[in-house]
Amino acid sequence: MIPGKADFNDIYDADDPHLYYTAMQTLDYCIPEQARPLFEKMIEEIKQQQKTEKKLNILDIGASYGVNGALLKWGMSLQDLFLHHRQPAASPASAYGRRLLERYQLRDDIDITGLDIASRALRYAQACDLIDQSITVDLEVDEADDNQAELIRRTDFIISTGCIGYVTDTSLRKILTLNNSRKAWMAHCILRMFDIEPYQRLFAEYGYHVWQHPVLLRQRRFASAEEQDQVLKNLKTLNIDACGYESEGYLYARMLFAMPLDVWSKSGR
């Protein structure tokens, strides 16, 4: 468990996401919707830069039940997911989850691979067509197998919405090494309680131009006073002023972008 962050391990990887979505709704979890327009803008930039009609391959690190896939592939909202999963699913859970798709139009120009250590959550997301492929591996300690490595190699865009901290530069280095010849663009939401500099250095080392979005993204309310106290201590250690942000009861994240240096140098930015 990461010091300072509430532990949701008991509900993060289940056959049915009902308890997870119930907990997240209670805590006003909102960062995927905060990040979605930034992801979509970058998707359009990548497509313009690549000048191709092929599907854009997206790797969602920390995908769990496929929230980012639901928002990006199907145009859902978090409220849609919360409402649909407000009761435990009838068996099988994946069939119940797929009923939600009937009201939405699939976006067919992106292909999403979910990466997580949560095998049951990924299985649910893939069975519901919220993601297209899944990679179940703990890159903090293990290596990707041949099939997993190939999915990472073909990635055009790497995203995450709050898993950095659980997923460290150890995992990201392995991903970037496998993907080095393609050099996927990246957009990561990194909670302010974690030091961002190791990731900035890592991306620069692999030949990226790195920058931050100027606006902080709200993640969720603190799960307890103890969680807030510990996060405030972490922020103080990092010399980050929590006034008006974490001090008001919510976790906040920075969006860190990275694009290949050669692309950035030609972009005229």
Structural summary, described in words:
The protein has 269 residues and is an alpha/beta fold. It has a single domain, classed as Vaccinia Virus protein VP39 (Rossmann fold, 3-Layer(aba) Sandwich). 41% of the residues lie in helices and 19% in strands. The chain has twelve helices and eight strands. Strands 1, 2, 3, 4, 5, 6, 7 and 8 form an eight-stranded mixed sheet that branches. Helix 7 links the parallel strand 2 and strand 3. Helix 3 packs across helix 4 and helix 9 packs parallel to helix 10. The longest helix is centred in the first third of the chain and has 20 residues.
Cα separation of the termini: 40 Å
- Poorly predicted regions are none
* Structural class estimated from helices and strands: alpha/beta
Helicity range: 40-55%
Described by the principal axes of the CA atoms, the overall outline is globular
Q: What name is given to the CATH topology?
A: Rossmann fold
Tally of helical segments:
12
What string, H for helix and E for strand, traces the elements in order? HHHEHHHEHEHEHEHEEHEH
Biggest beta sheet summary: 8 strands, mixed
Q: Mind telling me the CATH class? A: Alpha Beta
Radius of gyration (CA) equals: 18 Å
CATH homology group: Vaccinia Virus protein VP39
Number of strands: 8
Tell me the CATH architecture.
3-Layer(aba) Sandwich
* Tally of domains: 1
- Strand content is 15-25%
- Provide mean pLDDT, rounded: 93
